[in-house]
From TrEMBL:
Domain Activator of Hsp90 ATPase homologue 1/2-like C-terminal as annotated: residue spans: 23-159
Pfam families: AHSA1
Name of the protein in question: SRPBCC domain-containing protein
Family: Belongs to the AHA1 family.
Annotated organism of origin: Micromonospora carbonacea
C-alpha cells in the first residue's frame, strides 16, 4: 500500500496523506496531468471517476463525476490554482450539481500535492485544507479519509502501464 501516513489536524484544518511510489517524479506527475490516467485512480475503486473536462493549466477547470455501485453519480470540480511541473499542484475542490455547476464555490477545500524525488522513488504529500472544522468533520464522516487512501492505492497499478 503506497499510503504511508494520514494525519488529521483539526487545529490546522488539514488532512494530510503521504504516499510513496516506485517511479520517478515525472511519471507520477502524469497520473495527475493526464485525464485518462487520473480517472483510473481518482476516487475509491467502488466509485470510479470520469473526467469530462481537465484543463490542466493555472486557472483551468476540471469537471468529473464518480459512479457508485448502484449507478448513482457524485459530481465534483477542481480549479487549478498553481502548477510547478512536475513537483507541485494546487487546486480548489468542491461538489457540483448534475449540470456540473459548482454548488459550493464559496467554500471549496484547497489541495496541495507535492511530489519529491527519493532516489528512483517519489514521495507524494497531499494536504487538503478545509474552510472550518465542521467541513473537515463532514468530509471525514463522508468517507474522505478511507476513499482517498483507496484512491491513492490505485496509482501503483498505473505506474508501470504506459498505455492510456
Amino acid at each position: 500500500m503506497p499510503v504511508t501516513s494520514i494525519q488529521k489536524d483539526v487545529e490546522a484544518l488539514t488532512l494530510t496523506f503521504v504516499a510513496e511510489f516506485d517511479a520517478g517524479v515525472e511519471r507520477v506527475w502524469q497520473v495527475w496531468a493526464d485525464a485518462r490516467q487520473l480517472e483510473r485512480w481518482w476516487g475509491p475503486p467502488t466509485w470510479p471517476a470520469t473526467f469530462e473536462q481537465h484543463d490542466f493549466v493555472v486557472g483551468g477547470w476540471s469537471h468529473y463525476y464518480m459512479t457508485g455501485p448502484e449507478g448513482e453519480k457524485a459530481r465534483g470540480w477542481w480549479r487549478i490554482t498553481a502548477l510547478d511541473a512536475p513537483h507541485r499542484l494546487e487546486f480548489d475542490d468542491g461538489f457540483s450539481d448534475e449540470h456540473g455547476n459548482p454548488i459550493d464555490a464559496d467554500r471549496p477545500t484547497h489541495a496541495v500535492a507535492t511530489l519529491t524525488a527519493d532516489g528512483a522513488r517519489t514521495r507524494l504529500t497531499l494536504v487538503t485544507r478545509f474552510v472550518d472544522a465542521d467541513q473537515l468533520e463532514r468530509m471525514v464522516n463522508m468517507g474522505m479519509e478511507e476513499g482517498l487512501r483507496e484512491a491513492l492505492g490505485q496509482i501503483d497499478g498505473l505506474l508501470g502501464d504506459t498505455g492510456r
